[in-house]
Amino acid sequence: MKCENCGRQVGPEELKCPHCGADNLFALLHQQNMEEFGETFHQTEQDVAASAKKISKIGIKAVVLMALLIGCVVLSMISSANYKDPDPDEAVRKDAVKHAEEYSAQIDGFLKNGEYMECVDFMYAHEIMNISADEYDHLRNIKYVLHDYENCIQKMEEMVFRSTDPDYFDSLDTAISSFCRSLDSFYETWNGYVRTKEKNADYKAYMEDMEQELKLAMKLYFSLDDEELAAFMELTQGQKAVKIEEVIRDEK
Amino acid sequence: MKNKKLNLIFNILLGIAGVAFFICLILFADSVKYKNREKEDPAEAHGRVFEYELRHQAYNEIISHYSADRLSNFEPQPGFEDSYRVAQYAHAAFMSAIYEAEQNESKAKRNDATRERLKQGLGRYSYTADQIDEIIRKALAK
After folding, report:
1. pLDDT at A252 over 70
2. The pLDDT value given to residue B1
3. Binary contact (A68, B20; C-beta < 8 A)
C-alpha cells in the first residue's frame, strides 16, 4: 500500500510511514479494531468459561442423580431377591405332573383301602390338592370332600385328645368351632357331588363311605344315638358347638 | 436465572435421591443379613415342643402339628419320626372304634395291624400308646 502523504510504499501494519513519518491511518484503524476484537474475544472467552463451569456443575449433579437412581433400583432388586425364599412347592408340582400315573395309582390304593386321611396327606404333600393339571382332573371333586372329611376327623381327634392338664392351654373351643365349620362344609360339598353329579360315580362309594364314617365318629365320640344324631345335624353351627362342648366336657 | 432454578431443582432431587439411596442401602444390608441368617434346625425345635406336649399329655397338639407338617412332608423329616408315630397311633386308635362299629372287617384288620406296627415302633414313647388307649376308652364310655 502507498503512503497518503508521500506516495511511497508502506507496510499494512506500519503505524507511521518509514519515509516521511506520516501516520498510516489504515494501520492505526486496524490496530484499534484488533484491540477491540481482542477485548470482546477475551470477554466472550470468560463468559463461555463461566457458563461452561456452571453447566458442568449441573451435569455432574445430573450424573450423580442418575447414579443414585440406578443404585436405588439395583439395591432394591438385590434386596427383594435376598428376602425372597425359594418356592419349594414348584419342584413338587413339577414332580406331581411327571409322576401323575404312579401317584394316581397310589391315590386309588388309599381310597380302596379306605385310608382317606393318608390319601389327603399324600395329595397335599405332592401338591396334587393345589394343582389344576389335566392329569389329576378326575380327582377334582373328590379332593374337596376328602379335604373336609380330613378336617372333621382331625378336629374330632383334637377334641378327644385334648390335654386335661389345668396348666395347659385349653383349645377345645377352637377345635369345636373349627369342626362345626368343617362339618357344614363337608355336607355342602358332599351333597353337591354325591346327589347331583353322575360324573362322580367312580368316587361316589368313597364319598358315601366317608360320610358313614363321619356319622359313626359323631355317634361314638359325641354319645349320640340315631335320633339324636339326626336332631344334631339339624342344629345351627352355634347350637352344634354348644352340644359338643356339653358332651366333651361331660356337662350333660 | 435459568441456571439457578435448574440448580435448585437438581439440589432438591439429589437430596431426595440421596435419602432414597440411604434407605435402599439399609434395606440391602438387612436383606443380606436375612439371607445369611442362621436357620434353626427344625428337628431340634420340634423335639422340644414334642417333649413339652407329651409332659402335658397334649396329644391334640401333637396331632395338630403332625397334620400341618404332613401337608408338606408325607414321610417324616429326620427328628420328626417319633411325633409322627405317636400321632398316627392316636389316629389309628381313634378310627378303631369307628371301623368296629362300621363292621368293616378289612379296614379294622388293616387298622389293627397298623396300630400294632406303630406301637412296636414307639420305643421309649411306648407309654403314650397306653395313655392314648385310655383316653379313647374314657371318651367312648361317656
Report:
1. no
2. 66
3. yes
